Amino acid sequence: MTDLDAHVADLCARSRPAARALALASDELRRRALLAAADALAAEGPAIQAANALDVEQARHDGLSAALIDRLRLDGKRLDSVVADLRQIAELPDPVGAILEERTIAQGIRAEKLSVPIGVVAIIFESRPNVTVDAAGLCLRSGNACILRGGKEAVHSNRALASAFRRGVERSGLPADTVQLVQTTDRALVPLLLRRDDAIDLVIPRGGEALIRHVVEVSRVPVIKHDKGVCSLYIHRAADHDMALRLIENAKCQRPAVCNAIENLLVDAAIANEFLPKVAAWAGSRVELRADSRALPLLPGAKAATEADWSTEYGELILAVAVVDDLESAIVFTERYGSHHSDGIVTADLKAAERYLAAVDSACVYHNASTRFTDGGLFGFGAEVGISTNRIHARGPMGIRELCTYKWVCRGSGQVRV
Predict the structure, then answer these.
(1) Which residues contact 179 (CB under 8 A, 6 or more apart)?
(2) Do 146 and 275 fall within a single domain?
(3) The domain spanning residue 312 has which CATH number?
(4) How confident is the model at residue 389 (pLDDT cuts 50, 70, 90)?
(5) Please, which contacts does 269-276 make with residues 24 or more away whose CB atoms are closer than 8 Å?
(6) Co-location of 276 and 303 in the same domain
Protein backbone atom coordinates (compact mmCIF):
# COMPACT_ATOMS: atom_id res chain seq x y z
CA MET A 1 0.00 0.00 0.00
CA THR A 2 1.39 3.41 -0.99
CA ASP A 3 1.31 6.47 1.24
CA LEU A 4 -1.56 7.86 -0.86
CA ASP A 5 -3.54 4.61 -0.54
CA ALA A 6 -2.98 4.68 3.20
CA HIS A 7 -4.09 8.31 3.48
CA VAL A 8 -7.31 7.62 1.53
CA ALA A 9 -8.00 4.50 3.59
CA ASP A 10 -7.54 6.49 6.80
CA LEU A 11 -9.84 9.30 5.65
CA CYS A 12 -12.55 6.83 4.70
CA ALA A 13 -12.21 4.76 7.87
CA ARG A 14 -12.67 7.87 10.01
CA SER A 15 -15.50 9.41 8.00
CA ARG A 16 -18.25 6.80 8.32
CA PRO A 17 -18.34 6.59 12.16
CA ALA A 18 -18.23 10.38 12.30
CA ALA A 19 -21.12 10.58 9.82
CA ARG A 20 -23.24 8.23 11.91
CA ALA A 21 -22.54 10.20 15.09
CA LEU A 22 -23.38 13.45 13.37
CA ALA A 23 -26.59 12.13 11.79
CA LEU A 24 -27.83 11.15 15.25
CA ALA A 25 -26.70 14.37 16.95
CA SER A 26 -29.38 16.75 18.12
CA ASP A 27 -30.13 20.05 16.44
CA GLU A 28 -28.79 21.87 19.48
CA LEU A 29 -25.50 19.94 19.48
CA ARG A 30 -24.91 20.62 15.79
CA ARG A 31 -25.65 24.33 16.35
CA ARG A 32 -23.27 24.41 19.30
CA ALA A 33 -20.54 22.76 17.25
CA LEU A 34 -20.86 25.37 14.50
CA LEU A 35 -20.72 28.26 16.94
CA ALA A 36 -17.68 26.70 18.64
CA ALA A 37 -16.01 26.37 15.25
CA ALA A 38 -16.78 30.03 14.51
CA ASP A 39 -15.27 31.05 17.84
CA ALA A 40 -12.14 29.02 17.10
CA LEU A 41 -11.75 30.61 13.65
CA ALA A 42 -12.14 34.10 15.11
CA ALA A 43 -9.66 33.38 17.92
CA GLU A 44 -7.10 31.99 15.48
CA GLY A 45 -7.60 34.79 12.96
CA PRO A 46 -4.00 36.10 13.05
CA ALA A 47 -2.56 32.62 12.46
CA ILE A 48 -5.04 31.98 9.63
CA GLN A 49 -4.16 35.29 7.96
CA ALA A 50 -0.45 34.57 8.29
CA ALA A 51 -0.98 31.22 6.58
CA ASN A 52 -3.02 32.91 3.86
CA ALA A 53 -0.25 35.47 3.32
CA LEU A 54 2.12 32.58 2.53
CA ASP A 55 -0.27 31.30 -0.12
CA VAL A 56 -0.78 34.75 -1.67
CA GLU A 57 2.96 35.37 -1.80
CA GLN A 58 3.55 31.98 -3.43
CA ALA A 59 0.79 32.71 -5.95
CA ARG A 60 2.48 35.98 -6.90
CA HIS A 61 5.82 34.19 -7.21
CA ASP A 62 4.21 31.55 -9.47
CA GLY A 63 2.72 34.25 -11.70
CA LEU A 64 -0.94 33.48 -11.06
CA SER A 65 -3.42 35.94 -12.55
CA ALA A 66 -4.87 38.81 -10.55
CA ALA A 67 -8.25 37.06 -10.68
CA LEU A 68 -6.87 33.88 -9.10
CA ILE A 69 -5.00 35.82 -6.43
CA ASP A 70 -8.23 37.67 -5.62
CA ARG A 71 -10.02 34.33 -5.15
CA LEU A 72 -7.22 33.19 -2.87
CA ARG A 73 -6.99 36.24 -0.61
CA LEU A 74 -8.50 35.98 2.87
CA ASP A 75 -7.86 39.39 4.40
CA GLY A 76 -9.49 40.64 7.61
CA LYS A 77 -12.87 41.56 6.15
CA ARG A 78 -13.17 38.34 4.18
CA LEU A 79 -12.26 36.21 7.18
CA ASP A 80 -14.77 38.14 9.28
CA SER A 81 -17.37 37.40 6.61
CA VAL A 82 -16.51 33.69 6.64
CA VAL A 83 -17.00 33.57 10.41
CA ALA A 84 -20.25 35.54 10.17
CA ASP A 85 -21.54 33.15 7.49
CA LEU A 86 -20.77 30.21 9.74
CA ARG A 87 -22.74 31.75 12.58
CA GLN A 88 -25.61 32.37 10.16
CA ILE A 89 -25.55 28.71 9.09
CA ALA A 90 -25.88 27.73 12.75
CA GLU A 91 -29.12 29.72 12.99
CA LEU A 92 -30.75 28.15 9.93
CA PRO A 93 -33.72 25.85 10.59
CA ASP A 94 -32.67 22.24 11.07
CA PRO A 95 -33.22 20.30 7.83
CA VAL A 96 -32.69 16.90 9.46
CA GLY A 97 -35.83 15.03 10.48
CA ALA A 98 -38.22 17.37 8.70
CA ILE A 99 -41.41 15.60 7.59
CA LEU A 100 -41.61 16.15 3.85
CA GLU A 101 -44.75 14.10 3.33
CA GLU A 102 -47.01 11.81 5.33
CA ARG A 103 -49.74 9.43 4.36
CA THR A 104 -51.61 6.33 5.41
CA ILE A 105 -50.80 3.34 3.22
CA ALA A 106 -52.19 -0.21 3.08
CA GLN A 107 -53.91 -1.56 6.19
CA GLY A 108 -53.53 1.66 8.11
CA ILE A 109 -49.73 1.84 8.24
CA ARG A 110 -48.56 5.43 8.79
CA ALA A 111 -45.74 6.44 6.44
CA GLU A 112 -43.60 9.55 6.81
CA LYS A 113 -41.06 10.82 4.30
CA LEU A 114 -38.25 12.21 6.47
CA SER A 115 -35.33 14.42 5.47
CA VAL A 116 -32.03 12.74 6.41
CA PRO A 117 -28.33 13.46 5.79
CA ILE A 118 -26.68 12.08 2.65
CA GLY A 119 -23.81 10.65 4.71
CA VAL A 120 -20.19 11.29 3.70
CA VAL A 121 -19.65 14.09 1.20
CA ALA A 122 -16.31 14.66 -0.56
CA ILE A 123 -15.78 18.19 -1.84
CA ILE A 124 -12.93 18.84 -4.27
CA PHE A 125 -12.21 22.50 -4.93
CA GLU A 126 -9.62 24.97 -6.14
CA SER A 127 -8.10 28.22 -4.91
CA ARG A 128 -10.81 29.72 -2.68
CA PRO A 129 -10.00 28.92 0.95
CA ASN A 130 -13.37 30.17 2.19
CA VAL A 131 -14.87 27.03 0.64
CA THR A 132 -13.16 25.02 3.40
CA VAL A 133 -15.30 26.69 6.04
CA ASP A 134 -18.49 27.09 3.99
CA ALA A 135 -18.49 23.43 2.95
CA ALA A 136 -17.63 22.13 6.41
CA GLY A 137 -20.29 24.31 8.02
CA LEU A 138 -23.05 23.34 5.61
CA CYS A 139 -22.22 19.66 5.83
CA LEU A 140 -22.16 19.73 9.62
CA ARG A 141 -25.45 21.65 9.86
CA SER A 142 -27.11 19.10 7.57
CA GLY A 143 -25.68 16.15 9.52
CA ASN A 144 -23.07 15.08 6.96
CA ALA A 145 -19.42 14.24 7.49
CA CYS A 146 -17.14 15.76 4.86
CA ILE A 147 -13.77 15.10 3.28
CA LEU A 148 -12.31 18.28 1.80
CA ARG A 149 -9.63 18.41 -0.85
CA GLY A 150 -8.49 21.95 -1.66
CA GLY A 151 -6.07 23.15 -4.31
CA LYS A 152 -2.35 23.47 -3.76
CA GLU A 153 -2.63 27.27 -4.16
CA ALA A 154 -4.38 27.51 -0.78
CA VAL A 155 -2.66 24.69 1.08
CA HIS A 156 -1.51 26.76 4.09
CA SER A 157 -4.82 28.60 4.38
CA ASN A 158 -6.89 25.41 4.15
CA ARG A 159 -4.83 23.64 6.80
CA ALA A 160 -5.14 26.55 9.21
CA LEU A 161 -8.89 26.89 8.63
CA ALA A 162 -9.62 23.16 8.89
CA SER A 163 -7.52 22.78 12.04
CA ALA A 164 -9.33 25.61 13.77
CA PHE A 165 -12.72 24.29 12.65
CA ARG A 166 -11.95 20.78 13.91
CA ARG A 167 -10.82 22.09 17.29
CA GLY A 168 -14.07 23.94 17.70
CA VAL A 169 -16.14 20.90 16.74
CA GLU A 170 -14.26 18.67 19.17
CA ARG A 171 -14.75 21.14 22.03
CA SER A 172 -18.51 20.92 21.44
CA GLY A 173 -18.53 17.16 21.99
CA LEU A 174 -18.81 15.97 18.38
CA PRO A 175 -16.04 13.99 16.64
CA ALA A 176 -13.42 16.20 15.01
CA ASP A 177 -13.45 13.77 12.08
CA THR A 178 -16.83 15.05 10.97
CA VAL A 179 -14.55 17.43 9.02
CA GLN A 180 -11.40 16.04 7.41
CA LEU A 181 -8.95 17.76 5.12
CA VAL A 182 -6.83 15.85 2.62
CA GLN A 183 -3.30 16.64 3.72
CA THR A 184 -1.45 16.08 0.46
CA THR A 185 -1.60 18.18 -2.71
CA ASP A 186 -0.63 15.21 -4.89
CA ARG A 187 -3.24 15.00 -7.64
CA ALA A 188 -2.79 11.24 -7.83
CA LEU A 189 -4.83 10.99 -4.62
CA VAL A 190 -8.04 12.23 -6.23
CA PRO A 191 -8.77 9.14 -8.37
CA LEU A 192 -8.05 6.94 -5.36
CA LEU A 193 -10.57 8.88 -3.29
CA LEU A 194 -13.19 8.82 -6.03
CA ARG A 195 -13.07 5.02 -6.27
CA ARG A 196 -14.32 4.69 -2.69
CA ASP A 197 -18.02 4.40 -3.38
CA ASP A 198 -18.10 2.03 -0.40
CA ALA A 199 -17.22 4.90 1.95
CA ILE A 200 -18.26 8.14 0.20
CA ASP A 201 -21.86 8.89 -0.79
CA LEU A 202 -21.49 12.03 -2.88
CA VAL A 203 -18.71 14.09 -4.46
CA ILE A 204 -19.02 17.78 -5.30
CA PRO A 205 -16.30 19.32 -7.49
CA ARG A 206 -15.86 23.10 -7.45
CA GLY A 207 -13.36 24.66 -9.80
CA GLY A 208 -12.34 24.95 -13.41
CA GLU A 209 -13.64 22.98 -16.35
CA ALA A 210 -10.66 20.60 -16.34
CA LEU A 211 -11.14 19.65 -12.69
CA ILE A 212 -14.85 19.02 -13.10
CA ARG A 213 -14.38 16.94 -16.26
CA HIS A 214 -11.69 14.85 -14.53
CA VAL A 215 -13.90 14.17 -11.50
CA VAL A 216 -16.88 13.19 -13.66
CA GLU A 217 -14.74 10.87 -15.79
CA VAL A 218 -13.02 8.95 -12.98
CA SER A 219 -15.55 8.94 -10.13
CA ARG A 220 -17.43 5.84 -9.05
CA VAL A 221 -19.19 8.04 -6.51
CA PRO A 222 -22.26 10.03 -7.65
CA VAL A 223 -21.26 13.58 -8.69
CA ILE A 224 -23.13 16.87 -8.47
CA LYS A 225 -21.35 19.23 -10.86
CA HIS A 226 -20.65 22.85 -10.06
CA ASP A 227 -19.68 23.76 -13.59
CA LYS A 228 -17.95 26.80 -15.02
CA GLY A 229 -19.84 30.09 -15.09
CA VAL A 230 -20.32 31.22 -18.69
CA CYS A 231 -23.14 33.62 -17.86
CA SER A 232 -24.82 36.12 -20.18
CA LEU A 233 -26.98 39.21 -20.06
CA TYR A 234 -29.34 39.98 -22.95
CA ILE A 235 -30.31 43.59 -23.55
CA HIS A 236 -33.74 43.40 -25.21
CA ARG A 237 -35.04 46.07 -27.55
CA ALA A 238 -37.42 47.27 -24.81
CA ALA A 239 -34.67 47.66 -22.19
CA ASP A 240 -34.09 50.81 -20.17
CA HIS A 241 -30.57 51.76 -21.25
CA ASP A 242 -29.48 53.28 -17.95
CA MET A 243 -30.67 50.22 -16.07
CA ALA A 244 -28.91 47.96 -18.56
CA LEU A 245 -25.59 49.74 -18.10
CA ARG A 246 -25.88 49.53 -14.30
CA LEU A 247 -26.56 45.80 -14.51
CA ILE A 248 -23.67 45.22 -16.92
CA GLU A 249 -21.35 47.13 -14.58
CA ASN A 250 -22.39 45.07 -11.58
CA ALA A 251 -22.54 41.70 -13.31
CA LYS A 252 -19.13 42.09 -14.96
CA CYS A 253 -17.07 44.35 -12.73
CA GLN A 254 -18.06 43.95 -9.09
CA ARG A 255 -16.07 40.69 -8.82
CA PRO A 256 -15.04 39.47 -12.28
CA ALA A 257 -13.33 36.36 -10.90
CA VAL A 258 -16.50 34.71 -9.57
CA CYS A 259 -18.65 32.18 -11.41
CA ASN A 260 -21.79 34.34 -11.49
CA ALA A 261 -20.12 37.26 -13.29
CA ILE A 262 -21.20 37.63 -16.92
CA GLU A 263 -18.86 36.71 -19.77
CA ASN A 264 -21.24 37.38 -22.69
CA LEU A 265 -23.29 40.47 -23.47
CA LEU A 266 -26.04 40.08 -26.07
CA VAL A 267 -27.61 43.19 -27.59
CA ASP A 268 -30.78 43.27 -29.66
CA ALA A 269 -30.15 44.38 -33.25
CA ALA A 270 -33.00 46.91 -32.97
CA ILE A 271 -31.05 48.99 -30.43
CA ALA A 272 -27.45 48.08 -31.27
CA ASN A 273 -26.62 51.33 -33.11
CA GLU A 274 -27.78 53.39 -30.15
CA PHE A 275 -26.75 51.18 -27.24
CA LEU A 276 -23.36 49.75 -28.19
CA PRO A 277 -21.56 53.14 -28.28
CA LYS A 278 -22.74 53.55 -24.67
CA VAL A 279 -21.18 50.18 -23.87
CA ALA A 280 -17.92 51.32 -25.47
CA ALA A 281 -17.93 54.49 -23.36
CA TRP A 282 -18.68 52.46 -20.24
CA ALA A 283 -15.87 49.98 -20.92
CA GLY A 284 -13.22 52.59 -21.74
CA SER A 285 -9.77 51.14 -21.18
CA ARG A 286 -10.91 49.20 -18.10
CA VAL A 287 -12.85 46.35 -19.72
CA GLU A 288 -11.57 44.54 -22.79
CA LEU A 289 -14.37 43.97 -25.29
CA ARG A 290 -14.37 41.12 -27.80
CA ALA A 291 -17.05 41.63 -30.42
CA ASP A 292 -18.70 39.76 -33.27
CA SER A 293 -18.76 41.18 -36.79
CA ARG A 294 -21.97 43.16 -36.19
CA ALA A 295 -20.89 44.68 -32.89
CA LEU A 296 -17.27 45.40 -33.80
CA PRO A 297 -17.90 48.57 -35.92
CA LEU A 298 -19.93 50.05 -33.05
CA LEU A 299 -17.30 49.39 -30.34
CA PRO A 300 -14.14 51.46 -30.91
CA GLY A 301 -11.12 49.68 -29.46
CA ALA A 302 -12.78 46.26 -29.29
CA LYS A 303 -11.11 43.11 -30.56
CA ALA A 304 -12.68 40.64 -32.96
CA ALA A 305 -14.17 37.71 -31.05
CA THR A 306 -13.37 34.12 -31.94
CA GLU A 307 -15.76 31.19 -31.75
CA ALA A 308 -14.03 30.08 -28.54
CA ASP A 309 -14.74 33.40 -26.82
CA TRP A 310 -18.47 32.72 -26.53
CA SER A 311 -17.94 29.68 -24.30
CA THR A 312 -14.96 30.94 -22.28
CA GLU A 313 -15.08 31.76 -18.57
CA TYR A 314 -12.56 34.60 -18.41
CA GLY A 315 -12.73 35.37 -14.70
CA GLU A 316 -11.35 38.84 -15.42
CA LEU A 317 -12.32 42.15 -17.04
CA ILE A 318 -13.01 40.75 -20.49
CA LEU A 319 -16.50 40.79 -22.01
CA ALA A 320 -17.62 39.15 -25.25
CA VAL A 321 -20.30 41.16 -27.09
CA ALA A 322 -22.67 39.89 -29.78
CA VAL A 323 -25.57 41.44 -31.67
CA VAL A 324 -28.59 39.12 -31.95
CA ASP A 325 -31.61 39.55 -34.18
CA ASP A 326 -34.28 39.16 -31.53
CA LEU A 327 -35.40 37.43 -28.35
CA GLU A 328 -35.45 33.96 -29.90
CA SER A 329 -31.94 34.42 -31.26
CA ALA A 330 -30.75 35.44 -27.78
CA ILE A 331 -32.28 32.29 -26.30
CA VAL A 332 -30.64 30.08 -28.94
CA PHE A 333 -27.25 31.77 -28.37
CA THR A 334 -27.48 31.35 -24.60
CA GLU A 335 -28.46 27.70 -24.86
CA ARG A 336 -25.65 26.99 -27.32
CA TYR A 337 -22.74 28.73 -25.63
CA GLY A 338 -23.66 29.14 -21.97
CA SER A 339 -22.95 26.75 -19.11
CA HIS A 340 -26.54 26.82 -17.78
CA HIS A 341 -25.40 28.63 -14.64
CA SER A 342 -26.94 32.15 -14.48
CA ASP A 343 -28.35 34.23 -17.33
CA GLY A 344 -30.55 37.31 -17.53
CA ILE A 345 -32.68 39.58 -19.69
CA VAL A 346 -33.10 43.34 -19.35
CA THR A 347 -36.45 44.53 -20.68
CA ALA A 348 -39.61 46.45 -19.87
CA ASP A 349 -41.61 43.98 -21.98
CA LEU A 350 -43.07 41.50 -19.48
CA LYS A 351 -44.18 39.08 -22.18
CA ALA A 352 -40.64 38.93 -23.58
CA ALA A 353 -39.24 38.50 -20.07
CA GLU A 354 -41.52 35.57 -19.29
CA ARG A 355 -40.64 33.90 -22.59
CA TYR A 356 -36.92 34.22 -21.79
CA LEU A 357 -37.31 32.97 -18.20
CA ALA A 358 -39.23 29.93 -19.39
CA ALA A 359 -37.02 29.07 -22.38
CA VAL A 360 -33.50 29.55 -20.99
CA ASP A 361 -32.62 26.31 -19.21
CA SER A 362 -30.16 27.60 -16.63
CA ALA A 363 -29.98 26.98 -12.89
CA CYS A 364 -30.84 30.65 -12.25
CA VAL A 365 -32.50 33.05 -14.69
CA TYR A 366 -33.02 36.78 -14.07
CA HIS A 367 -35.24 39.59 -15.29
CA ASN A 368 -33.90 43.12 -14.72
CA ALA A 369 -31.38 42.00 -12.13
CA SER A 370 -27.67 41.20 -11.99
CA THR A 371 -26.54 37.59 -12.26
CA ARG A 372 -24.33 38.29 -9.22
CA PHE A 373 -27.26 37.37 -6.97
CA THR A 374 -26.67 33.64 -7.59
CA ASP A 375 -25.17 33.14 -4.17
CA GLY A 376 -26.10 30.96 -1.23
CA GLY A 377 -25.83 33.80 1.26
CA LEU A 378 -28.08 36.07 -0.79
CA PHE A 379 -30.58 33.25 -1.29
CA GLY A 380 -30.79 32.92 2.50
CA PHE A 381 -28.83 29.66 2.72
CA GLY A 382 -26.03 31.16 4.85
CA ALA A 383 -23.53 29.97 2.24
CA GLU A 384 -23.39 27.25 -0.39
CA VAL A 385 -21.20 24.31 -1.24
CA GLY A 386 -21.46 25.51 -4.82
CA ILE A 387 -23.83 26.37 -7.63
CA SER A 388 -25.10 23.10 -9.08
CA THR A 389 -25.60 22.97 -12.84
CA ASN A 390 -27.00 19.43 -12.58
CA ARG A 391 -30.57 18.75 -13.55
CA ILE A 392 -31.19 16.11 -10.90
CA HIS A 393 -31.34 16.24 -7.09
CA ALA A 394 -30.12 19.83 -6.67
CA ARG A 395 -29.81 22.85 -8.95
CA GLY A 396 -28.50 26.35 -8.30
CA PRO A 397 -27.04 27.33 -4.90
CA MET A 398 -26.69 24.21 -2.73
CA GLY A 399 -27.46 24.85 0.90
CA ILE A 400 -28.30 22.58 3.82
CA ARG A 401 -31.60 21.29 2.43
CA GLU A 402 -29.87 20.25 -0.80
CA LEU A 403 -27.35 18.28 1.28
CA CYS A 404 -30.12 16.03 2.55
CA THR A 405 -31.92 13.09 1.01
CA TYR A 406 -34.91 11.28 2.52
CA LYS A 407 -36.14 7.96 3.80
CA TRP A 408 -39.59 6.53 4.49
CA VAL A 409 -40.42 5.70 8.10
CA CYS A 410 -43.42 3.37 8.38
CA ARG A 411 -45.27 2.67 11.67
CA GLY A 412 -47.69 -0.20 12.00
CA SER A 413 -49.40 -2.40 14.58
CA GLY A 414 -48.68 -5.90 13.34
CA GLN A 415 -49.90 -5.63 9.73
CA VAL A 416 -48.86 -8.30 7.22
CA ARG A 417 -49.26 -8.13 3.48
CA VAL A 418 -51.82 -10.50 2.01
Answers:
(1) 136, 139, 140, 145, 146, 148, 162, 165, 166, 169
(2) no
(3) 3.40.309.10
(4) confident
(5) 269/294, 269/323, 269/324, 269/325, 269/326, 270/237, 270/326, 271/235, 271/237, 271/239, 271/241, 272/298, 272/323, 273/298, 274/241, 275/235, 275/239, 275/241, 275/244, 276/321, 276/323
(6) yes
Q: Which domain holds residue 45?
A: 7-226
Residue type, 149: R
My answer on whether 190 and 255 are in the same domain is no
127 in the same domain as 104:
yes
3-state secondary structure of 373: helix
- Indicate if 103 and 238 belong to the same structural domain: no
* Domain count for the chain: 2
Residue 3 makes CB contacts below 8 A (sequence gap 6+) with 184
Tell me: the pLDDT tens digits for 6-52? 999 999 999 999 999 999 999 999 999 999 999 999 999 999 999 99
pTM higher than 0.90 for the full model? no
Q: How many CB atoms lie within 10 A of CB 246?
A: 14
CA neighbours closer than 13 Å in the CB half-sphere of residue 341: 28
